[in-house]
Amino acid sequence: MREIEYAAPTSVDDAIAALAGAGVCRPFAGGTDLLVQMRSVPPSEQKWVDIKRIPEMTSIALDASGLRLGAAASCWEVSQHKGLRETFPGLVEAAELIGSIQIQNRATVGGNVCNASPAADTVPALIAVGADCVIAGPDGRRTVPVAEFVTGPGTTQLGDNELLVELVVPPVAARTADAYLRFSPRGEMDIAVVGAGVSVTLASDGTCTAARVALGAVGPTAFGVPAAADALVGTSLDETALERAAAASRDAANPIDDKRGTVTYRRTVAGVLTRRAVQLAASRATERSS
Amino acid sequence: MARKTHVQTTINGEQTEFLCHPHQSLSEVLRDELHMTGTKEGCTTGDCGACSVLLDGRLVCGCLVLAIEAEDTEITTIEGMASGEKLHPLQQKFLEHAALQCGICTPGFLIAAKALLEHNPDPTEHEVRYWLSGNLCRCTGYDKIVAAVLDAAQSMGGDTR
């Protein structure tokens, strides 16, 4: 029997207390993964803790100290937040690629991270902007980089009785911008064959002074590709640098063969998307410097 | 069985209350408890959009919302779309354009299109197709549906209620 118990606390402390109950307790935000899982594999008794009535967890705060994105803020809220799109266009691109409008209105970036799909769109985008996960538990709060939070397909560092409260992104440096590109056979309502998140910083003469490159759907988890970033730093993002970064992404990709693409295909696309995402991020960084 | 929970909500402008189990979806309760069967249930995985309803004005799949979450919210279903005998312009245009065959997907498309026009009263064809990508029709294809929505937008002239 798919029996569940439901709680809707209004503070993080109350949510942690609710999660500390006996048996299996699941934080419940948009439910776009959780309800589907419940129907495909009816759980034994579970307690679901609805976190959408906790103001801290649904808020989006963007100011000089950076971004604090509540884990229960919907992808729709993210995509409609004007300042957020201007500041982190790549992160917003990733969030608004997830599902239909119906799904956008429910699904959350925090849930996308916690669901820990290898093909999750927001994870490479978050790694590219240097995001951290703030986790609350019975013993207080701890902070973990997004790249370390996800530990495998469907698994995270989140312990029993712990809750992802928010995603924290440092402020954007001058002449810095991000981009996220996904390849999938259809433009929407599809899952990534490859995803690439990039952030670049340009000096006033156009030289790349800092970069981050992250890939999704080409390994058990999304991951950063330092070798691709290294290939970009100190260059003017010329053809040689772009090709070196693309080659680094092809080398770092460790994909599976499945119906969405072969290993060879995914490796190739990882290189192509890296190159294009770098160019897109660089054009945005250039606009910001003018 | 766990105890049923009492939920108070507003559906199509009317105060409504019902009892539900925590695991029951909103579409399940609308159909099976409240006998509002205009909302259809197709895939129950959020892919087909047949169960589309508005929750506090936001377009959602009723199958991916727990009925218990409806406490203190406002829900709009297909039953609330016409004003008595007077069809909503979208409903009228779906008839005029023959934008349906079997009709199972139609309530979901109408609710989704209503949400679109409230958000964007003058959408392009591309915007209509993108917005409606969460609704599947397995009979007619989508051209007539898109044409009906565009025509409705034009006839409404920005008055999207």
Structure, described:
- The complex is a heterodimer of chains A (290) and B (161).
- Chain A is α+β, with helices and mostly antiparallel strands.
- Chain A is built from 13 helices and 14 strands.
- In chain A, strands 4-5-10-6-7 form a five-stranded antiparallel β-sheet. A four-stranded antiparallel β-sheet of chain A has the order 11-12-13-14, sandwiched between helices. Chain A has a three-stranded parallel β-sheet with strand order 1-3-2, covered by helices on one side.
- In chain A, helix 11 packs antiparallel against helix 12 (239-252).
- Chain A is globular, with a radius of gyration of 19 Å.
- The relative contact order of chain A is 0.12.
- The model of chain A has no long low-confidence stretch (mean pLDDT 95).
- In chain B, strands 2-1-5-3-4 form a five-stranded mixed β-sheet, sandwiched between helices.
- Chain B has two domains: 5-80, Ubiquitin-like (UB roll) (Roll); 89-156, [2Fe-2S]-binding domain (DNA polymerase, domain 1, Orthogonal Bundle), CATH 1.10.150.
- The relative contact order of chain B is 0.15.
- Chain B contains five helices and five strands.
- Classes of the chains: A alpha+beta (290), B alpha+beta (161).
- Chains A and B meet through strand 1, helix 2 and helix 7 of A and strand 4 and helix 3 of B.
Topology:
The complex is a heterodimer of chains A (290) and B (161).
Chain A: E1 4-7, H1 12-19, E2 24-28, H2 34-40, E3 46-50, H3 55-58, E4 60-63, E5 66-70, H4 75-80, H5 82-87, H6 89-96, H7 101-104, H8 109-115, H9 122-128, E6 132-137, E7 140-145, H10 146-149, E8 150-152, E9 155-156, E10 163-169, E11 176-183, E12 194-202, E13 208-216, E14 223-224, H11 226-232, H12 239-252, H13 263-289
Parallel strand pairs in A: 1-3, 2-3
Antiparallel strand pairs in A: 4-5, 5-10, 6-7, 6-10, 8-9, 11-12, 12-13, 13-14
Helix pairs in contact in A: 11-12, 12-13
Chain B: E1 5-11, E2 14-20, H1 26-33, E3 52-55, E4 58-61, E5 74-76, H2 89-96, H3 106-119, H4 125-131, H5 143-156
Parallel strand pairs in B: 1-5
Antiparallel strand pairs in B: 1-2, 3-4, 3-5
Helix pairs in contact in B: 2-5
